[in-house]
Amino acid sequence: MRIGVVGLGHVGLVTAACFAHVGHEVIGVDSSAERVEDLRRNKLPFFEPHLQVLVEGGRRRGNLHFEHDLTGAVHRTDVIFICVGTPALPTGEADLSQIEALAVQIAERMNGEYRVLVEKSTVPVTTGSRIEQTLRRLTSSRFDVASNPEFLCEGSAVHDTLAPDRIVLGSSSEEATRLLMDVYRPILDRSGCPVIVTDVPTAELIKHSSNAFLATKISFINSVAEICERVGADVEEVARGIGLDPRIGERFLKAGIGYGGSCFPKDVAAFAALAEEVTGKAPLLRAVQRINQAAPARLLDKLREELWYLRGKRIAVLGLSFKPGTDDMRDSPSVKVIEALLEEDSSVVAYDPVAMPKAKELLPPTVSYAPTVEDALRGAHAGVILTDWKEFKELDPSTFKRTLRFPIVADGRNLFDLEDMRAAGVTYLSVGREAVRA
Ligand code: UGA
Fold first, then answer.
1. Euclidean distance between CA atoms 388 and 415, whole angstroms
2. Which residues line ligand 1 (CB under 6 A)?
3. pLDDT tens digit string along 334-347?
């Protein structure tokens, strides 16, 4: 199959590289000439496990091309995947102007041959019909618009794409469905995963509902964590106790500093805005957002209470990316925590195994960075853990006692056993569990 992928961000680049890996002829297009040039030299714009190897392989075999101009991807492919950004407007609604602009540019380049345009970016329901309307106004070429939401997680994006747990195809045309099945045939043959073929609005809703449901699980357990702290219960045990019920499931019940990243915060906001537009209300989603937004302040309250004042204290922040396995800092809880610390006149020394170069571009220049965990902790008044990197989990609790000025750790990821911290003489403030005081 000949496939165009437009927008080479996390979703687009992974999609393009994986389609090339399974044997398709792929043209990836991006409006940034610099990004295209970098990719042609195998330089990736972000860190994602296994992606480098896939991009290099596709370039070497010659079935993965990167182009700045969209024309080739419209003229020389059968199916065009739309993977451009859908950022949030200040109201929380999704800004679909990049999608609209792309629909216009594709229409202008259509040359009478049939094409399938596939939404892969996360978009609110009804976007498909908007794309269709835009193209109808501008071209007489035959086309179909389909929806094929992605369910890839950063850090395991390549695996999630090559071995998905389901593929959702929203399409009202048999011809488009057949072509999409051909695109996915090699992945289906390997993974044997179920395929849901449905209409476009249903596919769009599956994506938003899926992310909103996962975010709801996280906010649910975080609100249970708050109750646990007040009544002396342990949220980890509660999560295990409820998660073993297969109707609930254990995953996404990890209490902590809240969800971040480029998807959940934006998607919950967009879904809530859409729900309010079409039904006049979104009480559940708004509560999910409120609980999430309160999580960083809750952790800092505990630390302030312990330190008496945050002002003038040096705080070691361990973990900057929104989750392990990525250098992505978009909507990372670390940004909120660090900004709040600086506002209270604390000084911040940060360490992250991969996100520090990105962080330096994003965070205020007053933040300093340490080359190792121990360097970050040494001499700081307290440590704050914000990302569940394996490197932090594997730290011996005595490290905190040995290096910190006051052995106080506020852990937004519940990485350590309470008894181990107690035995090491560390004051340990985690989420939804008893506070350990040395
Ligand atoms: C998320 C979804 O998991 C993917 O299925 C979806 O395709 C993707 O968004 C997307 O829409 O593109 P991702 O943002 O990469 O993937 O990250 P997750 O692994 O879902 O984690 C999101 C956030 O929730 C992280 O900040 C993580 O630390 C937090 N989290 C996750 C918790 O606080 N507790 C949990 O139990 C699980």
1. 7
2. 122, 150-154, 211, 214, 218, 252-254, 256, 259-261, 263-264, 322-323
3. 999 999 999 999 99
